[in-house]
Amino acid sequence: MSASAIFILDLKGKVLISRNYMGNMDMNEIDHFMPIMMRMEEDADTSPLVTSGSSHFLWIKHSNLYLVAMTKKNANAALVYSFLYKIVQVFKEYFKELEEESIRDNFVIVYELMDEVMDFGFPQTTDSKILQEYITQQGHKLDVGAPRPPATVTNAVSWRSEGIKYRKNEVFMDVIESVNLLVCGTGGWWHLNWGERARGNDWSGIGGMVSATGSVLRSEIMGSIKLKVVLSGMPELRLGLNDKVLFEITGREKSKTVELEDVQFHQCVRLSRFENDRTISFIPPDGESELMSYRLNTTVKPLIWIESVIEKFSHSRVEIKVKAKSQFKSRSTANNVAIMVPVPSDADSPKFKTSTGSCKYLPEKSVVQWNIKSFPGGKEYMMRAHFGLPSVESDELEGKRPITVNFEIPYFTVSGIQVRYLKIIEKSGYQALPWVRYITQSGDYQLRTN
Q1: Regarding predicted confidence, which is higher, 445 or 133?
Q2: Where is the MHD domain (predicted)?
Q3: Beta bridge partner(s), residue 171
Q4: pLDDT tens digit string along 273-332?
Q5: Residue 393 carries which DSSP code?
């Protein structure tokens, strides 16, 4: 069982639009929601689920709106929240932005969508591409005579329409991995007197570096495989990966494999086939979609290693020295690298020197942003920043905020995942071109200094 009713409220708790799906609740019960929320805010004790008597409110906030599901039953809370986030996505794809104004401007379409996405408390079609076939921005107009539901609703393949035709048939697949990393203790790689010896405009005195010992506190790889499908008809695709479980089944343990965790598939994937022989077989949605996502909870060697030290001089100025080293193979290159180095919040008069790239001071964030457009593997670069400080010493604990790094490495996956094959089978027998691209990028990538 899911929700008995769905409400969309403004920030003051006024109901903008609602839908009673089961008729088993007093819709005026929603009047209790906002007073409860206000009391929770005063107590600094917010909860995603609140209760008034026998009524339960499961809610999310988006922009200047509250989306609230109301039920008296023992509902599947995970299903309800998944549904609320899904209808936010549907509304955004219809109206670009979901906010109070877009709801007020599109009451008719919002009501039609709410009628279609849930029936008697159970989620139904929530794919915006399918909904847009019969609920348009101009409103839903029925033909004369008995209305016929679109084929995608009654078809076994509800995510793809029949009769799709293209002059050139292609599939573009992106294997994208985001690296989440937290490293602690990356400072102290210069001798303490480095700043006294490196006053000139060159990098003399850097011979005083010592190796840093940083410990990886958290590392994981979040991966996804995204598709852009430009194929005619109703093709079947078969995807082969260097999946560890599959290779063990087929006796190829010595081959390079990856062990995927928390794998989630698009509804088009035949799960029974995957569970039986690890074959990823599917009829793809037309256009862009995410085929699957996965996670690898493994120790990741930091792809870009950062070491830094901060020195204060007579409470009137501060120098920050940073070394960045790429720890991947030289045949790969990280693009658009941005290293965000925290500085004292009261710093001023910035001056920079870098061995490559450029720096800019972002006072609103109290950071120096060091931009390196192209960072080949196996390279090492330096940056030095000089700031003035007020004469009054601050009690603020400086240098404790982490250094964050953003980057993207094309043609490379940190996990080593590989697409072994991508077969395209269609009854008309046309030839289709598959294109595969690999990308590794930074996720939550932080290095904390001592």
Answers
A1: 445
A2: 195-448
A3: 229, 434
A4: 888 888 899 999 999 999 999 998 888 889 999 998 888 777 688 899 999 999 999 999
A5: P
pTM for the full predicted model: 0.69
What value, to the nearest 5°, has the Cα angle with vertex 416 and ends 413 and 422? 85
According to the model, what pLDDT value does residue 194 have? 33
Q: How many domains does the chain have?
A: 2
3-state secondary structure of 410: strand
Asked if residue 225 and residue 307 are part of one domain, the reply reads yes
Between CA 230 and CA 237 the distance in angstroms is 13
- Shared domain check, 324 and 229: yes
Q: Kindly tell me if the per-residue pLDDT of 155 is higher than 60.
A: no
Give the torsion through C-alpha atoms of 436, 437, 442, 443, to 10 deg: -30
User: Which of 102, 123, 138 is a domain's end point?
Assistant: 138
CATH, residue 304? 2.60.40.1170
Nearest CA-CA partner of 419 in 226, 265, 241, 291: 241
- In the predicted structure, residue 396 carries a pLDDT above the cut 80: no
| 5-10: strand order across its sheet | 15-20, 5-10, 65-71, 55-62, 49-52
Distance CA(349)–CA(22), nearest Å, equals 65
Contact between 405 and 207 under an 8 Å Cβ cutoff? The reply is no
pLDDT in tens, 240-258: 998 887 777 766 665 678 8
CATH number of the domain within which 122 lies: 3.30.450.60
The region that residue 349 occupies, defined by phi over 0 for left and psi between -120 and 50 for alpha, beta otherwise, is: left
Structure confidence at residue 169 (pLDDT): 95
Structural domain contains residue 304 = yes
CA–CA separation, 387 vs 351, rounded Å? 7
User: Do 337 and 434 fall into the same domain?
Assistant: yes
Is beta strand 55-62 parallel, antiparallel or unpaired with respect to 65-71? antiparallel
C-alpha count within 13 angstroms, C-beta hemisphere, residue 256: 7
